[in-house]
Amino acid sequence: PQPASSGAVLSPDMGHVLESGLGPQDEHVSKQILRSYDIPVVWEKLAANVEECLSAADDMGYPLVMKGIVPGGIHKTEMGLVHVGIPDRKTAADMFAVLTKKMNDRGKVLLQQQVSGKVELILGLIRDPQLGPCVMLGIGGIMAEVFNETVFAVAPLSREDALGLMERFRGKKLLEGFRGTPAVDKEKLAAVLIALGNIAISYPRVREIDINPLIITPTGAIAVDATIVLG
Predict the structure, then answer these.
(1) E strand segments, the chain
(2) Which of 11, 39, 43, 149 counts the most CB atoms within 10 A of its CB?
(3) Own/partner pairs, 141-146, CB within 8 angstroms, 24+ separation
(4) Domain that holds residue 100
């Protein structure tokens, strides 16, 4: 493996993707890159056939999430390629067949441990023409388009920058525990925000990163879906 300048360790395959990839990278590849930077991501496995699907499902336990991953298909929900609450082996096998048919045998099936939490955030990165790479924090999940609440900070971020970004976030009550929801570990969230900035600094070809949602659970924050755009 080759170390990135931030201290992350990327596999040769992931390093090659960041150096030469183009356009939106699929969800699984994007999260492998994020994991290399110690960003917590959901437990998941790709399955090429129904045997691999059932083996992965049994390892993870039920219920689980199954997704179809197709080249360039970043809007998986709208394409009918996301199914949650898969309760057992038979349903998993049936869903593998459904997803494979929908993708015309040209995609992959991704199985994920189902993560639940009442608080969902969106984290990301954009490249501003004047300011350069900027890290973003906002309300995530299905509410992201309803409450367009996001704050930005120019990368690279220090710990103080990341904590300050949370203070400027108008949804910060969600971070502190609200109506029975777990409080966010702000130090760990700061580390994720810092890591996003470091990816952009280390790899100028990273045009955009979108983590939506990052789900807050009693044991920590987990990236459930993510896309990295290269160019």
Answers:
(1) 2-3, 9-10, 23-24, 44-47, 64-69, 82-86, 108-113, 119-128, 132-139, 150-154, 206-217, 220-223, 226-230
(2) 39
(3) 141/212, 141/213, 141/215, 144/212
(4) 44-113
Looking up tokens 């593998």 gives 96
Mean pLDDT over all residues of the chain?
90
Instruction: Report the C-alpha gap between 45 and 60 in whole angstroms.
Output: 9
Q: What span, in angstroms and rounded, lies between the C-alpha atoms of 20 and 10?
A: 14
In a shared domain, residues 221 and 145: yes
At 46-78, the pLDDT tens digits run 999 999 999 999 999 999 999 999 876 666 777
Q: What is the pLDDT of residues 137-161, one digit of tens each?
A: 998 876 666 677 899 999 999 999 9
Out of 113, 137, 154, a domain closes at 113
